């Protein structure tokens, strides 16, 4: 069943077209990778789905579980945000408010959509922090973002995104700001939790390795459009479009000898 | 935290000592003869000699400075024998003009300066920060442009002009306010309010302009931060996003500037007090400068500097309260 259906999405900032007629759809519980070089419109697409674009002209349709978002009033979209569609951002340090303890920030997300006492919310926070692998969750909930390491901060962001058990998570470059060993841990965690909660994931990245390891399907974007789409292994094995081929050739591979120079796009 | 506080207070005391030394030196190398000034018009050479002896003016300058500093902490006695004059702690000397101890003058003038400073601060915080927040939230709107234009006007107009225009309009033309005079808050609250209103408006016009622009710039910067986007992504109402997530980081730099501004004004609003003829510390300084009343100038300088230096210490402590990264040490 289709959960997210984006039809002919166009976003422009003044004269600049960031997204130019993009269409894709995502089934419940599946993972769709949106890949492309920086500036191709991936992040703008994610912000458009979340209704977080400011100062942009948007057209097209974004259907979420049978509800069209672009035409809906802002309050209706806000009610969905955080509750049924959540987002994980690239840089977990700047994405968390330095002035509040992490537990407060997670509880705030929960209480924005559910009527609960502070005590109940706190219990949920501790359970979520524990679930994403933060040791001594009860004590750590009172700590501030700067007291966590990069990987731990991203775990906090994941706990925040998942605390309301959303149907869709948009992960915008969730591992780009992290070092490689931590990247693998975070991806594994995301995958486990996704399976556990049955959440669909829109994974936005320029890292083809991340997509190959996690996504079911891929949409390759270039210049604000989708140039190719398909099931992840089929597309990686046999890319049809020249752009996809060159994108893949620009990445060094562990199973082949390293060339003197990598291909440039 | 206590170690930090003690360090800051130690540094503050050192700064005050340096300021004291600098001011002291400047005045004692000035061409005016302090003994001549202290003596007044009907003066004889014998009297000047007597005063010179009493004030210790014939001792070397470092020694005079040491006596001055000692006097601040322990009080001192001018002269010896039958002509000896006791100057109790914290002794800042006697006014050449009125022969009143400088510390008494300062204490008697402080309530007026404090009334002006605190009242104006409340006004400019409300108006300036409020206008800045609205301008930032409605960036580019007619409100933003009007408020920022008015702010620029407030900053650009000199206080002696706004003060005179206010006085002319409100007192002379419309007769809604009396001429300002020094009224105690406790003796006559209504009179105090009526007297202080114009000085408050004149001062607040200047500061509100600066605070509105500062607040606007800061808030616009904070609103583009990633954590504000996260707050919106949680589905929080925009009101909560601004109030809880954007305003607190915006206030931190404003608190810093505010502490120093208030500290500076408590040490006397020289122009405002002079134009409205209100006997505050600033007016005291202006009069002392006009009559080369050196002990008073020195005392006012130290007094004003002390407020600024200690306001800085308070601001540093507030910073720690406001920002957990400073309180807990960034890892």
Walkthrough of the structure:
Chain B: Belongs to the binding-protein-dependent transport system permease family. Chain B: Pfam families: BPD_transp_1 (PF00528), BPD_transp_1_N (PF19300). Chain B: This is Peptide/nickel transport system permease protein. Chain B: InterPro entries: BPD_transp_1_N, MetI-like, MetI-like_sf. The complex is a heterodimer of chains A (about 260) and B (about 325). Chain A is an alpha/beta fold. Chain A has one domain (about 1-250): 3-Layer(aba) Sandwich (Rossmann fold). Chain A is about 40% helix and about 25% strand. In chain A, the strands form two sheets. Chain A has a six-stranded mixed beta sheet with strand order 6-7-8-3-9-10, sandwiched between helices. A four-stranded antiparallel beta sheet of chain A has the order 2-1-4-5, covered by helices on one side. In chain A, helix 4 packs parallel to helix 7 and helix 7 packs parallel to helix 8 (about 180-195). The mean pLDDT of chain A is about 90. Chain B is mostly helical and about 325 residues long. In chain B, about 75% of the residues lie in helices and about 0% in strands. Chain B contains 14 helices and two strands, in the order H-H-H-H-E-E-H-H-H-H-H-H-H-H-H-H. Chain B has helices spanning about 1-30, 35-40, 45-55, 60-75, 100-135, 140-155, 160-175, 190-225, 225-235, 240-265, 270-275, 280-290, 295-320, 325-330, and strands at about 75-80, 85. At the A-B interface, helix 2 of A face helix 9, helix 10 and helix 14 of B.
């Amino acid at each position: 069943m289709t959960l997210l259906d984006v039809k002919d999405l166009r976003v422009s900032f003044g004269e600049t077209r960031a997204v130019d007629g993009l269409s894709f759809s995502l089934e419940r519980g599946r993972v769709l990778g949106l890949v492309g070089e920086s500036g191709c419109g991936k992040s703008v697409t994610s912000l458009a789905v979340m209704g977080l674009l400011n100062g942009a002209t948007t057209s097209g349709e974004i259907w979420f579980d049978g509800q069209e978002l672009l035409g809906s009033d802002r309050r209706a979209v806000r009610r969905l945000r955080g509750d049924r569609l959540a987002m994980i951002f690239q840089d977990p340090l700047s994405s968390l408010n330095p002035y509040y303890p992490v537990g407060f920030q997670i509880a705030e997300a929960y209480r924005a959509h559910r009527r609960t006492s502070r005590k109940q919310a706190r219990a949920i926070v501790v359970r979520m922090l524990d679930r994403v692998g933060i040791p001594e969750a009860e004590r750590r909930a009172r700590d501030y973002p700067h007291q966590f390491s990069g990987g731990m901060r991203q775990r906090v962001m994941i706990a925040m995104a998942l605390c309301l058990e959303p149907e869709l998570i948009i992960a915008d470059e969730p591992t780009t700001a992290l070092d490689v060993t931590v990247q693998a841990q975070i991806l594994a965690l995301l995958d486990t939790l996704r399976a556990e909660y049955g959440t669909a994931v829109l994974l936005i990245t320029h890292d083809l390795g991340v997509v190959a390891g996690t996504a079911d399907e891929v949409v390759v974007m270039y210049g604000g459009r989708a140039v190719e789409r398909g099931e992840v292994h089929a597309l990686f094995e046999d890319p049809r479009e020249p752009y996809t081929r060159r994108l893949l050739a620009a990445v060094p591979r562990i199973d082949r000898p390293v060339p003197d120079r990598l291909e440039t796009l | 935290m206590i170690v930090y506080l003690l360090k800051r207070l130690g540094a503050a005391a050192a700064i005050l000592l340096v300021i004291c030394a600098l001011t002291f030196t400047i005045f004692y190398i000035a061409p005016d003869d302090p003994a001549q000034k202290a003596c007044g018009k009907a003066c004889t050479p014998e009297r000047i000699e007597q005063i010179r002896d009493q004030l210790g003016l014939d001792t070397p300058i470092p020694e005079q400075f040491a006596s001055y500093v000692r006097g601040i902490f322990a009080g001192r006695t001018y002269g010896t024998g039958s002509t000896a004059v006791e100057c109790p702690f914290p002794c800042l000397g006697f006014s050449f003009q009125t022969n009143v101890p400088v510390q008494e003058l300062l204490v008697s003038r402080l309530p007026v300066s404090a009334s002006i400073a605190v009242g104006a601060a409340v006004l400019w915080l409300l108006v300036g920060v409020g206008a800045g927040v609205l301008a930032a939230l409605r960036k580019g709107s007619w409100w933003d442009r009007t408020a920022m234009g008015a702010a620029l006007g407030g900053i650009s107009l000199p206080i002696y002009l706004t003060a005179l225009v206010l006085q002319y309009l409100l007192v002379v033309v419309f007769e809604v306010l009396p001429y300002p005079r020094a009224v105690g808050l406790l003796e006559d609250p209504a009179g105090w309010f009526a007297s202080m209103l114009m000085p408050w408006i004149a001062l607040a016009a200047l500061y509100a302009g600066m605070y509105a622009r500062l607040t606007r710039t800061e808030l616009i910067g904070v609103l583009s931060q990633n954590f504000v986007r996260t707050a919106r992504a949680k589905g929080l109402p925009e009101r909560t996003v601004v109030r809880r997530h954007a305003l607190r980081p915006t206030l931190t730099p404003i608190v810093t500037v505010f502490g120093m501004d208030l500290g500076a004004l408590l040490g006397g609003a020289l122009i405002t007090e002079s134009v409205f003829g209100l006997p505050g510390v600033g007016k005291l300084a202006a009069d002392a400068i006009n009559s080369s009343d050196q002990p008073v100038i020195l005392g006012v300088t130290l007094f004003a500097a002390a407020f600024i230096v200690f306001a800085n210490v308070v601001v540093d402590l507030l910073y720690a309260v406001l920002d957990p990264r400073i309180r807990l040490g960034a890892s």
